[in-house]
Design a protein that fits this description.
Layout (H helix, E strand, L loop, with lengths): L9 E9 L3 H11 L2 E3 L14 H23 L18 H42 L4 H9 L21 E8 L1 H15 L3 E7 L4 E2 L6 E2 L2 E8 L1 H13 L3 E3 L5 H57 L3 E2 L5 E9 L3 H11 L8 E4 L17 H10 L10 H15 L3 H16 L4 H4 L4 H8 L1 H18 L16 H8 L3 H6 L31 H34 L4 H31 L11 H10 L13 H41 L5 H11 L19 H7 L2 H25 L2 H25 L5 H43 L17 H4 L1
Antiparallel strand pairs: 1-10, 1-11, 2-10, 3-7, 3-8, 4-7, 5-6, 9-10
Helix pairs in contact: 1-7, 1-8, 2-3, 2-7, 3-7, 5-6, 9-10, 10-14, 10-24, 10-25, 11-14, 17-18, 17-23, 17-24, 18-20, 18-23, 20-23, 24-25
């Protein structure tokens, strides 16, 4: 089978890489993305490996890159995407890259530090200018105000030397943040007991903060005091509040001269700051040009060294030994890449396959179309190595089962057009670069949505529903005129009977089945819902039994591929007999009744449900006639046959494995000689018929072990217990799973009824509100807008999500558990694809 129907064959390959060419070989393998490295140093800590020093240097470079990137973002710039595919640089270039990056980072730090220092200095000058500008005329008047007239604190008896001999008024001027001004003023008054005069004013223009770059308003203050002790207290308090304190001259002319000098210094600082910012923009431009390619190269280099740390060193220390998983079809490309990468070293790298007892990883290649369907399967569990892949069948069955529950031509067409728009725009860069999580979810499943919408249009034509309205594409198979002509309906009869019955047994009333789908005349019938319920319920049972039987049949391919032919007779055949003997017979009764019962005998047709109940009770109902001769004998035979398969399914495989285990153990004891035992074991490792070409035992009972380990670990009780669980799960699951498929009927009915209610409650009311053309046009605009919004929100999004989840459950639980274990793990190749992105 192809890789889509079954995982590709994967081989374990041992690589001998010369020390001089190991880096280039691994780098080339990362560009190709063909192999997955196995860690041969799992017992060695990350700090004791061979290339840990190189990994640390790369990590230090990444820290420097992070600093440069933050500086670029701080400046409001964006980093361009690297152009082309950049190879991993050779190891000798790492020192050059580190020196160049460190030099650029240090230059950027110096320039940024100088810019911040200049901004702080300019900010201090502006604050000082604001203090001096708002302090004009405050000096002498403040002293005069304190000296004019006695106050309540002026002593009555003056000192002998005169009242003004030792009095000297001093000033403290500065700026404080506005939210600290009230607390500062209150603390100054309390601490100094009023022996000061403080004036606080807000700056006329906000000043740019040198740290945040945002404009901020400051409060300037001027404090006049006397006494050295008061001055010390004032300075300590201003220091605690982180105030900016500046010298304040008493003479107004001196203050004006100082203000002019500050303004001149500010202009000079602005010129220097402008030159610094221009030089900073030049440095950031170099960072923008250098950083993107260096980031990609260093990430690739780090990935190469991490891969080399997983290799072991040969005893001669002349080469590195690596073990990789590689697809068999990629082995020629692997050998060619190793040969090209090691040609410069003079010694060619060697790659050869080795046997392995471990289960290989699963490799299934996908493309844009199949990726979403494979994702549905992998969400349940990654398949075992070379197990049958359900994804190719899910491409058809998943959209179809969704459409059975979502069948409507109008709704399916809207979903199809939405998905088609995403498919047509999938190569646009803006669409790919969108970061909205909901959009990326829809975009990733665009092909799934496309098929879901297309199948919904198909089932909508079968149901004959378009926004819950029936369409008469073909002429109806029912003739009302023939019924009226032959029944003799009078005016009195028509007046007394609001509902009339069309009798298909009357000649000319039923002309034949509708060419495709449901006849539109059923949309007018009073028993429309009863008819659709019967049809959809039986259709759900038929689809469910067919789907489950197909899953059991797919298990045959697993048994044949893994060499488990005994399971065909002991498991697959009993399972098919049990499933088809009971529920396959139910499908047969439905189809047989559709084909055998005519319109004339429809009134006396037997009930399938009563026949099916009597089948398990081994009884018959006199009032329920058989569908075909000797039906009771057939039903009893099928029940007995289905019950007889349960012991076979329960005991067949465990007894066979127990017998094989004993026979192999006896044969091994009789043939094993004391001498030469090691040679036989070694030969058995390489040539054992129970080992696949990769060296892994493909039979699932071996669980990845050799035959000796398998025989040693064989526990009959565990085998019997496992098979008992499988038997109970399958037999009970056939009943519960068949009932679970009735969700197709329930969800389809719910979707149709919601569509009908939405049409009746919105559009029908809008169409009946106005008979005039103008009134109808005005009314229908908001009515149709509301109908469109509710259709998309309720019927497309909510109902679509509900149908999607139910279809997902039918595939995971009812279908895949018949043949798919999902206990494997993916092949994760060593690739640079993410680094390039």
């Amino acid at each position: 089978m192809g890789s889509m129907f079954r995982g590709e064959e994967v081989a374990l390959v041992q690589l001998f890489l010369p020390t001089a060419a190991a880096y280039s070989c691994v780098s080339q393998l990362g560009e190709l993305g063909l192999v997955e490295f196995r860690d041969l140093n799992a017992s060695v800590s990350a700090f004791q490996r061979r290339f840990v020093a190189d990994v640390r240097r790369c990590e230090e470079l990444e820290k420097t890159f992070t600093f440069l990137q933050e500086e670029v973002r701080r400046a409001g710039l964006a980093l361009p995407a690297p152009e082309g595919r950049l190879p991993a640089p050779p190891p000798r270039d790492l020192l050059r890259i580190q020196e160049e990056t460190d030099r650029l980072a240090q230059e950027l730090r110096d320039v940024r530090g100088n810019q911040q220092a200049l901004q702080i200095q300019l900010h201090q000058l502006r604050l000082h200018s604001a203090v001096l500008g708002q302090g004009h005329g405050h000096g002498p008047p403040l002293a005069a105000a304190q000296m004019d007239g006695p106050s309540e604190r002026t002593p009555l008896l003056l000192a002998p030397g005169g009242p003004h001999e030792d009095l000297r008024v001093n000033f403290v001027a500065g700026a404080v943040e506005p939210h600290k001004a009230a607390a500062l003023e209150r603390l100054l008054w309390r601490a100094c007991r009023g022996f000061l005069i403080a004036s606080f004013r807000e700056t006329e223009q906000p000043l740019e903060d040198p740290v945040t770059g945002e404009p901020a308003t400051w409060m300037t203050f001027l404090i006049s005091y006397w006494g050295e002790q008061i001055g010390l207290k004032i300075r300590k308090i201003t220091d605690c509040f982180h105030c900016h304190v500046f010298p304040f001259l008493e003479q107004e002319e001196a203050r004006r001269a100082a203000l002019q000098q500050l303004q001149q210094q500010g202009q000079e600082l602005q010129e220097v700051l402008g030159e610094t910012e221009r030089f900073l923009s030049q440095v950031l431009g170099r960072v923008q040009q250098l950083l993107p390619p260096r980031q990609v190269q260093v990430r690739k280099m780090k990935a190469v060294y991490l891969a080399l740390n997983q290799c072991s060193v040969s005893t001669t220390h002349k080469c590195l030994i690596a073990e990789v998983w590689c697809a068999t079809r990629d082995l020629p490309a692997l050998q060619e890449a190793l040969r090209d990468s090691s040609s410069e070293a003079g010694v060619s790298a060697v790659a050869h396959r080795i046997p392995c007892r471990d289960m290989p990883p699963t490799l299934i290649r996908t493309n844009r179309f199949t990726a979403s369907f494979q994702g549905i399967v992998d969400a349940y569990g990654v398949g075992r190595y070379q197990e049958v892949n359900p994804a190719p069948y899910t491409i058809i069955t998943f959209p179809f089962l969704f459409a059975v529950m979502f069948g409507d031509v109008g709704h399916g067409l809207l979903m199809f057009l939405f998905a088609l728009a995403m498919v047509l725009a999938e190569d646009r860069p803006a669409v790919k670069a969108a970061q909205n999580e909901i959009w990326r979810t829809f975009f990733g499943g665009r092909y799934l949505l496309l098929l879901m919408g297309l199948f919904s249009v198909y089932t909508g034509f079968i149901y004959n529903e378009c926004f819950s309205r029936a369409t008469a594409i073909f002429p109806s198979g029912w003739n009302v005129a023939a019924m009226a002509n032959q029944s003799g309906w009078s005016d009195t009869f028509l007046a007394q009977h609001a509902v009339l019955t069309l009798d298909p047994s009357v000649n000319g009333v039923f002309l034949g089945p509708y060419p495709f789908g449901i006849d539109p005349v059923w949309s007018l019938a009073a028993n429309h819902l009863s008819f659709l319920n019967s049809f959809k319920m039986k259709m759900s049972v038929i689809l469910g039994v067919t789907h489950m039987a197909f899953g059991v049949v797919l298990g045959v391919f697993n048994h044949l591929h893994f060499g488990q032919k005994h399971r065909l007779l002991l498991e697959t055949l009993p399972e098919l007999t049990f499933l088809l003997g009971l529920f396959g017979y139910l499908v047969f009764l439905v189809v047989y009744k559709w084909l055998s019962v005519s319109a004339a005998s429809a009134a006396s047709a037997p009930s399938i449900l009563i026949h099916f109940i009597n089948m398990f009770l081994f009884s018959h109902s006199p009032t329920n006639l058989p569908l075909f001769p000797r039906q009771e004998v057939v039903q009893s035979t099928l029940v007995v046959l289905a019950l007889a398969t349960v012991p076979v399914l329960l005991l067949g495989t465990p007894l066979y494995l127990l017998r094989r285990h004993r026979r192999r153990r006896c044969l091994r004891h009789s043939q094993r000689a004391p001498a030469g035992g090691q040679e036989e074991d070694k030969a058995g490792l390489l040539d054992s018929p129970g080992v696949s070409e990769n060296g892994w035992g493909s039979d699932e009972e071996k669980a990845g072990c050799s035959e000796d380990e398998e025989e040693a670990k064989f526990v009959p009780s565990e085998v019997f217990m496992h098979q008992a669980i499988h038997t109970i799960e399958f037999c009970l699951g056939c009943i519960s799973n068949t009932a679970s498929y009735l969700r197709l009927w329930a969800l389809s009915l719910a979707h149709a009824q919601l569509s009908e209610v939405l049409w009746a409650m919105v559009m029908r009311l809008g169409l009946g509100m106005g008979r005039d053309v103008g009134v109808a046009a005005v009314v229908l605009v908001p009515i149709f807008a509301a109908f469109a919004v509710m259709t998309v929100a309720i019927l497309l999004v909510m109902e679509g999500l509900s149908a999607f989840l139910h279809a997902l459950r039918l595939h995971w639980v009812e279908f895949q558990n018949k043949f798919y274990s999902g206990t494997g793990y993916k092949l994760s190749p060593f690739t640079f694809a993410l680094e390039d992105e």
